[in-house]
Design a protein that fits this description.
Layout: E1 9-13, H1 22-35, E2 40-44, H2 50-62, E3 65-68, H3 74-81, E4 87-91, H4 98-105, E5 109-114, H5 118-122, H6 124-136, E6 142-150, H7 156-164, E7 174-175, H8 178-181, H9 194-199
Parallel strand pairs: 1-4, 1-5, 2-3, 2-4, 5-6, 6-7
This protein binds adenosine-5'-diphosphate and magnesium ion (MG).
Adenosine-5'-diphosphate binds at residues 18-24, 50, 94, 148-149, 174, 176-177, 180-181.
Length: 202
């Protein structure tokens, strides 16, 4: 984690698994920040380009800027080219690359969306190992796992898995609700996004 580094707050959404809500939550989080008057750059590092495509349609509506980026040194290159933001919100592909490692090392906060299902938690094992390795070098961001697309499942055993991996889960899951998909039709951030602000505080 950047030790009391100056400059914009850097929040990364990553999991080594697809379809868990990284892009959805990153967009909603960025929009919420922009609605609160912050200057927000949403960075799309996923070659699928979903956040970029969303931005082409709706970023202006919410007063934020979206840029695609790939490779390594993304933080540094964007900070140099695009100063003046309060928040950099970064959406990742469901893979681990050198670029992903760079962005994790340079991040203040990492939010890991998981669905309340065992395959998403199995994929957390590698993630937890990577973060443990980064912690040895004091380079791990402050990390929270958030259960997303919750439909009433008992989270107790799933939270136990997260804790067993040395990770912390947010207490409030984000429910499965149409309002989240409606973001992609230009809708605003559902109220459940507030849970992420607890994750990214401090
Ligand atoms: N809380 C939610 N409720 C309902 N649908 C959701 C929710 N979170 C994500 N989705 C939907 O799930 C799908 C996958 O989400 P996405 O953000 O693209 O995942 P990822 O970026 O991790 O691959 C999308 O269609 C999205 O609209
Ligand atoms: Mg995505």
């Amino acid at each position: 984690m950047r030790a009391s580094a100056p400059g914009p707050r850097r929040t990364v959404f990553w999991h080594q698994k697809g379809g868990t809500g990284k892009t959805t939550l990153a967009i909603a989080y960025a929009v919420r920040l922009a609605m609160d008057g912050h200057r927000v750059l949403l960075i799309d590092t996923d070659p699928q380009g979903t956040a970029t495509a969303w931005g082409e349609r709706f970023a202006a509506r919410w007063g934020l800027v979206v840029r695609g980026a790939c490779g390594t040194a993304i933080w540094r290159s964007l900070a140099d080219r695009m100063p003046g933001f309060d928040h950099l919100v970064l959406d990742c592909p469901p893979t681990i690359t050198n670029g992903t490692m760079d962005t994790l090392i340079g991040a203040d906060h990492l939010i890991i969306p998981v669905r309340p299902a065992l395959p998403d938690l199995w994929a957390l094992e590698d993630v937890a190992q990577i973060l443990a390795d980064l912690r040895v070098g004091a380079a791990a961001p402050r990390t929270r796992v958030v259960f997303n697309q919750h439909s009433g499942e008992d989270l107790t055993p799933l939270v136990a898995v997260v804790v067993g991996l040395g990770l912390q889960a947010l207490p409030a899951p984000i429910p499965a609700a149409p309002a989240w998909s409606a973001l992609f039709s230009g809708g605003g951030p559902p109220s459940g996004i507030a849970a992420l602000f607890d994750a990214a505080s401090g």
